[in-house]
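Dear Dr. H.,

I hope your travels went smoothly. While you were away I took the liberty of generating a structure for the chain from your last submission, since the lab meeting agenda had it listed for discussion. I wanted you to have the full record in hand beforehand rather than looking at slides cold. The sequence, exactly as received, is reproduced here:
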Amino acid sequence: MFRHITSAAGRVASACRPFTRTQSVAAQSYRTLCQTTRATRAVQLHTAWPVRAASTAAKGPSGGPVSWIGMTLMLAAGGGGVWYFVQKRDEKMAAKERQKKMRGVGRPALGGPFELVDTAGNKVTDTDFLGSWVLLYFGFTFCPDVCPEELEKMSETLDTLEKQVGPDAVKLVFVSVDPDRDTPEKVEKYVKQFHPKMQGLIGTHEQIKDMCKQYRVYYSRPEPDGSDDYLVDHSIIQYLLAPNGDFVAYYGQNSTSPQAAKSIMEHMAFYAEEHPDGN
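The corresponding predicted structure, in token form, is as follows:
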């Protein structure tokens, strides 16, 4: 009985062995096929990727192609930004170079103490303007053309500075060199025609003469003959005074208000660097 059972088990094992080997060969073939398929797919993806990337780069956010106009505008905007940066950098460098030359050569010894009165009769001295930028001009109310042109330029300069720097960036001051005819009422009415913030100052002959000497202002009037019909010859210069009272620049008849405004802002910037405390 036992021999029969053993013999049957041996026949079953023999029958199973061929099946097992066949199954193993089939499995191996399947694995080889899978590996080959994966390798082929990887090659296809690697080959197709640059094409797909190029296609994607040529499309906009919505999937449509980017137009040449859009690309041109993008390049123009970038180029404009670079140009603006370089332009501003060159302007600042040029301004610094001008300041260095001015400091190297030195400024004329202009300005000094003075005492006048305003159109309300109040005493005004040089110390009243400390802490403020001042644009100063000497003239007279009966001036037919030159003084109105210069005062108009001063007003335009102030308007530009107030937009760029802030309110009351500069104080406009008109000093009359014609004490005989320029009464407080006339001077007040005259300066307000050009700018509501312009201040008029008057004084005696000696006071005006002394101040003009301080600022090297030339003026000449004819000998009094009882007539009010005469002209006063005088310098045509706007003087820029820093907050510490020092003279820093002047603008002649050929200077324009945009040029003056630009120059004043440059002086303001350098003054702020040299006087961080504001004094």
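Two observations you may find useful: Confidence is low (pLDDT under 50) at residues 1-23, 43-63. The CA atoms of residues 86 and 231 lie 50 Å apart.

With kind regards,
E. W.
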